[in-house]
Give the backbone structure.
Amino acid sequence: MRESPLALLAEITHRCPLQCPYCSNPVELAKASEEMGTGEWLRLIDEAAHLGILQIHFSGGEPMARSDLPRLIRHAREVGLYTNLITSGVLLDRERLEALVEAGIDHVQISIQDTDPANADRISAYPNGLVKKRAAALLVHEAGLALTINAVVHRQNLDRLGEMIAFAEAVSAERIEVAHVQYYGWALKNRDALMPTIAQLDAATALVAAERQRLGGRMVIDYVIPDYYARRPKACMGGWGQRFINVSPTGNVLPCHAAETIASLTFANLRDRSLADIWENDPAFAAFRGTDWMPDACRRCDRREIDWGGCRCQALALTGDAAATDPACDRSPLHGAVFALAQKASEGLPEIRAYRRIGVK
Ligand code: SF4
Ligand code: FES
């Protein structure tokens, strides 16, 4: 029997009041009428615990757009799962937080778009979001919950990274995750507007090193060099089909949130099959699991069981072949071209071409 996955990302809805142009949701967004119902999510939670999963991350879209969220959290706690809420924070007022605390939520992650209020509004296409996020973060801290701030960074906000770290400190977060935009789906459409310059990146990397020293462990900063400028790829999802399961609002079971961009794969649905059966036997999970599928460069490489060949969705987006060596790796024949592409993109106009909306392609 295969080793159990560690965590499940439950994307319970694609609905969201924000419209970030780098959203990790697919370009084809699920409608509310297509979402799994409460009973189906409760059954999934039971199946996840049975499979040996330890953590469940409630995400979206905006997971707080679903009124059954406290019920799902309570059930997850009852079956022994660690519960994390990944939210924009704009719907999180005192009353709604109390319901989540009462249900047993363990940890909350609140995303920010920028610390400049006008730019935050522009990037999210949502008015006055930063004030609401700050208030929500303070409530989470007051409630005694573990808090992480997620700062998604790109050319249009990276110069304020220091202020974003200060924001996280001011709301007493335990951790800030500084996440460079990943270029597939919506972000790929906006790559020219979002790609940082190499000078911005170098300044940000130096700032993170200095801030880690200053903070001395009081607050953790998670930060990695973005793929287009990296020398080695990240171990995306801890290896395809090895540690994580992602469930879409409609019940599709995926090895990662962007897997549906790989049109050559078909994904199983929880309405037809059990989670355990999909984890053990689904061809889409087997497609890039382990090392057998790897191209020669990876098979011969001593990092093949460290990064598991990088990111399949990025390999597809950049080479047209999901089984190619991830061009973030300098052993890919396309590595130099991708670095040049990043530099060229970073000279593009800062105009956002596609805000995430249902019906926009
Ligand atoms: Fe990773 Fe493959 Fe590059 Fe080796 S060749 S570092 S396994 S992506
Ligand atoms: Fe799909 Fe990296 S996002 S494998």
User: Anything to note?
Assistant: The pocket of iron/sulfur cluster (ligand 1) is lined by residues 232-233, 297-298, 301, 303-304, 307, 309-310, 325-326, 329, 331 (CB under 6 Å).
